[in-house]
Specification:
Blueprint lengths: L10 E5 L4 E4 L4 E3 L2 E3 L3 E10 L5 E3 L2 E5 L2 E8 L4 E6 L7 E2 L2 H4 L3 E5 H5 L2
Antiparallel strand pairs: 1-2, 1-5, 3-4, 5-6, 7-8, 7-11, 8-9, 9-10
Amino acid sequence: MADYTARKIKFKAWDTEHRLLMRLNSIDCNKGELVKKNHILLQFTGMFDKEGEEIYEQDILMISLDKYVVFWNETKNGWYFSPLKDKNSFAPFLAKEASTMKRFCSFFELTNT
């Protein structure tokens, strides 16, 4: 049987008070739920864009001039992406798609500037 290693789980966070996207030094755990006061935690998808940049939850990605947002779909239990202008149209977000896209910014940076 092959050896299994746990995947590394990474987060960035949107600081709601200072309106900044940041990496955290620590995250609190309360009854199994990760929390950070005044922050929205954004999980690393495990995928990289065409330039090798890490892609996180709620990142805005671009193909040409088209913008897409990455999100976790609770119902389907997986990463999905949808056009920023049509959130009702979405598809599974796989490494194949990620490698054709360029990370632009976080959704929060786009909407809170």
